[in-house]
Amino acid sequence: MFNESVGNIEEQAIMWRRHFHQYPEVGMKEYKTVEFIEKVLIENNISYKKMDFPGIVATIKGEKEGKIIGLRADMDALPMKEETNLEYSSKIDGVMHSCGHDIHTATLLATAVVLKENEKDVMGTVKLFFQPAEEGPGGGLPMIEAGVMEDPKVDAVFGLHVFPIGRPGTYSVKKGVASSNSDSAKITITGKGGHGASPEKAVDPVFVSMYVGLGLQSIVSRNVSAMDSAVVSIGSINSGTAANIIPDKAEMKLSIRSFSEETRKLLNKRITEISEGVSASMGAKCNIEYKYGYPMMYNNHKAVDYLIETLGKEKVMEVDKPLSGSEDFSYFLQKAPGAFFGLNAGRVGEENFYNHHPKFNPDDSAIKHGIQAFVDIVMNQEKLKL
Ligand SMILES: [Zn+2]
Ligand SMILES: [Zn+2]
After folding, report:
1. How many Å lie between the centroid of ligand 1 and the Cα of residue 287?
2. b/e code 62-86 from CB counts within 10 Å (16+ = b)
3. Could you list which residues have their CB under 5 Å from ion ligand 2?
4. How many Å lie between the centroid of ligand 1 and the Cα of residue 78?
């Protein structure tokens, strides 16, 4: 019955995905996507609650006893121009579903319909979270703050992400730390402007920023343990207007990644000390706006074992390295144990372009495997011992 429902909905789910693909919306603007989801939920008599931002939670109450399981999809696209030339390419100029969140949304929506059709056999309650803005400014935390993981309290939560690697029907997962802490900082160095020919009368913030930049590159090599890893990247340095003017300010923007709370704090401390210390030694002032972004994602070991057992050992590749990127599903995993796993959607024998590439084109035959995975996670829950 479940498998039959999954088979029956596949074509529809692919059509939904291609619709979302044609009408992508960037973070916190996913109103049309939510409207579309709402329409399908109403047609299928599925109860739901809308957030006061573009987010929606559908709930299926099974007729059998069981746990409260949460399943999550993100809905946002990226501000970039599509170059796939697909017949269902984006119709919105400069916006593209290049991270596959269209696939996540269609997969979760189809899962809701399949579970509803079979609700007499569904165990427990399933809460299906459609969140906005994973790519920024962040939709996971607002969903959590709106209380979606409470009342009823979610016992376990799962999410997936499509990657154009591996053939459809296979998955990947990582136990424990599965993505990085993603932080940023804006450093403003204030000196004293003047004539380029009289540097002795000025305090040159461009020169100071060069030394600050060099100092920052010592953190990963000299302060972070050889057994750990971290990234400090200076993505932007801006200052000045002309060759013969010493400006009064220089601004640097940093991307900072780490994989433990301890290293996260260490990076903040050292970035602050070096920036302030080097600036002061050269007579400049330094202001740092340090921003903690998405925390690292932690996959519960037992939830990962359950996932592997449920989806089939031969289909799930257990990887040993976390994503160097970040993922705001981490906020859900702070509220309940669970796991985030990869849904493989590579095109066998073709060139595959990675997520965020303008030619990103995963194989959407992976959708049925995503639906099947979500349904299996719900239906085998007796084996889920947390
Ligand atoms: Zn992405
Ligand atoms: Zn993504």
Report:
1. 30
2. beeebbbbbbbbbbbbbebebebee
3. 99
4. 8
Residue-wise pLDDT tens digits, 201-227: 999 999 999 999 999 999 999 999 999
How many whole angstroms from 69 Cα to the centroid of ligand 2? Answer: 22
Q: What is the largest CA-CA distance in the chain?
A: 82
Q: Which residues pair with 192 in a beta bridge?
A: 203
Q: Ligand 1 centre from 164 Cα, in Å?
A: 12
Whole-angstrom Cα distance, residue 150 to residue 279?
Answer: 47
CA–centroid distance, 107 to ligand 1, in Å, is 17
DSSP 239-277: E-SSTTEE-SEEEEEEEEEESSHHHHHHHHHHHHHHHHH
Ligand 2 mean position, distance from CA 357 (Å)? 12
C-alpha 228/C-alpha 215 separation (Å) is 20
Sheet architecture: strand order including 64-74: 47-50, 56-61, 123-131, 64-74, 156-163, 338-344, 171-173, 316-318
- Residue 1 above 80 pLDDT? no
Q: What is the pTM of this model?
A: 0.90
